[in-house]
From TrEMBL:
InterPro entries: Gpr1/Fun34/SatP-like, SatP. It is a multi-pass membrane protein. Pfam families: Gpr1_Fun34_YaaH (PF01184). It comes from Carnobacterium antarcticum. This is Acetate uptake transporter. Belongs to the acetate uptake transporter (AceTr) (TC 2.A.96) family.
Length: 204
């Protein structure tokens, strides 16, 4: 008797939806501390590791499977950023011992913010050829890192700290919208939530 081979369609998560949700959650929680609505970073660390770090790394791995170089690079880089930042907060607060805490220099984290600012600038150019919602997210991330590295070095500290805080809160809003659009547009099969067309400047 001949066996029939039934082809089963493999369902893979939408990396944009999960990655943007991870970004939205961690920036929402982290922005409350910068805006003065909450205190300390202890309550942010779990979200930095689980949603900001692991969530975005999962999204990156699925984007890589889809051969999406831009998405895989972005989610991996920012996922690793949140893991590194979370560890820096733990060092700063003495989790790895008093000796490590005593040697902590916040300017070193400021240099990392500067590096991520440079990275985000050229990623923002790339985002112009994805969609306008994603472009706004990258533009706001650039303002976030600009505010973070300037305030880390004590340059117009209050002004740049507030710039970072507002940018981070707005990132959360746009990222929640982008995640919702990715899920609902795919689920309904039509553009339920518009995200805007690419600018069409660099890519024709």
């Amino acid at each position: 008797m001949k066996k029939e081979h039934v082809q089963v369609k493999q369902v893979i998560i939408d990396p944009t939806a999960i990655g943007l949700f991870g970004l939205a959650m961690v920036t929402l929680v982290a922005s409350t501390q910068k805006l003065g609505w909450t205190n300390g970073v202890s309550g942010i660390v779990p979200w930095a590791f689980m949603l900001g770090g692991i969530g975005q790394l999962i999204a990156s791995s699925y984007d890589a499977k889809h051969n999406n170089l831009f998405g895989a690079t972005a989610f991996a880089a920012y996922g690793l950023f949140w893991l590194g930042t979370g560890m820096s907060w733990m060092v700063q607060n003495g989790l790895f011992g008093a000796a490590f805490q005593a040697m902590y220099d916040p300017r070193q984290l400021g240099v990392a913010f500067l590096g991520y600012f440079v990275f985000t600038v050229f990623m923002t150019l790339g985002a112009m050829e994805t969609n306008k919602n994603l472009f706004m997210i990258f533009l706001l991330i650039a303002f976030l890192f600009l505010g973070l590295f300037m305030s880390s070095f004590g340059i117009a500290e209050n002004f740049f700290h507030m710039m970072a805080a507002i940018a981070e809160f707005l990132i959360a809003i746009f990222a929640f919208y982008g995640s919702a659009a990715a899920v609902l547009n795919g689920h309904f099969g039509y553009t339920f939530l518009p995200i805007g067309k690419p600018f069409g400047i660099f890519k024709k």
